[in-house]
Design goal:
Layout lengths: L28 E6 L4 H11 L4 E7 L8 H4 L22 E4 L6 H9 L4 E4 L9 H8 L28 E2 L2 H9 L3 E3 L3 H15 L3 E10 L14 H4 L4 E2 L8 H11 L3 H5 L2 E6 L6 E9 L5 H12 L5 E3 L15 E7 L6 E7 L3 H15 L16
Parallel strand pairs: 1-2, 1-3, 3-4, 4-6, 5-6, 7-9, 11-12
Antiparallel strand pairs: 7-10, 8-9, 10-13, 12-13
Amino acid sequence: MTPSTAPTSTPPGPAATGSRPASAGSRPVRVGILGATGYVGAELVRLLERHPAVRIVALAARNRDGVPVGEAFAHLAETGHRIDPGLPDASELDVAMLALPHGQAAAIAPALAASWLLVVDLGADFRLADPADYREFYALDHPAPELLPGGPGRPAADGRPTLPAAVYGLPELHRDRIRGARLIASPGCYPTTTILALAPLARAGLIADVVVDAKSGVSGAGREPKLETHFSEANESVRAYGLGGHRHLPEIRDQLAGLGASAESMAGLVFTPHLVPMTRGLLATCYVRPSRPVTQAELDALYGEMYGSEPFVQVAPVPPSTKTVTGSNLCRVHVRLDTRSGRILAIAVTDNLVKGAAGQAVQSLNIVSGLPETTGLEQLPLYP
């Protein structure tokens, strides 16, 4: 894609201030997807193809030029899309959705966003506020540290407008900031599920320390073949990985600290992910030592207050299973006080490819575009 020079006046489209493309009679939001043949990219195609206010105008994928998307994913054959030999000029798009490996989006997202596009990065390149965390957890010297969340942004230059820093795209926490964003860092599946499980406790200052035990299906590891995700390796087996400092740990830490969790509690945060032999689904069980005595009634009130009006977070009366959210953009959470130990158990489940990735990105697109957040995301879970 060759980003176009910013026009002298604000163009139509969701990234333009005051533009609402979903209004009656207006044109659809034009979306290009980079990384369209990975699991997350395919899920974006599945969701956006039936989105009533969106038109997919370009798909890109490495070494797939001209290939029908149905050859890569048979379930998408009826869409008729092909992988483009190159994306159109940025002036032909309103939104660029980047489902790329870590490190690739950082090199191209700033130029795209400076061309009046809304850029939604589904990778990790703009999720962390501190460039040092990228060096520690991703072995990456970030090429645009000024665009990380909380950064100063990039000043106007070469005829292009000032580019604000990225906004962390978890709508339940940052809806107001997402609404005016040009660059959205869509959260990962583990952080989404864990943060939503713990957010009411963090906001109330109730976390003295926390241990997170999280389990994900193998689709979370991506489509590229790896020894540990081969059927004979993963089937009938559960494996812990990323011990002592998984890449998602600073993302979880930063967001909970921003809600009010103390520096001491976040310094002691333990996060252990596990690979389990299922395709979709993520469960996070969080063991919290509260900072003060608390009752079950208070916990119920905290979660009801935070999530009572949220369209995609449901407070479950019993511990939820991953099967109850499969294929949907839902997160189901459950909180319980263990009176024997005094600890709080906070549990959440998501579909790692929907609320944990593509669906959440569409939710943010809807917010920026002035659409109801549920637009194109009304799918009920697949059960059984």
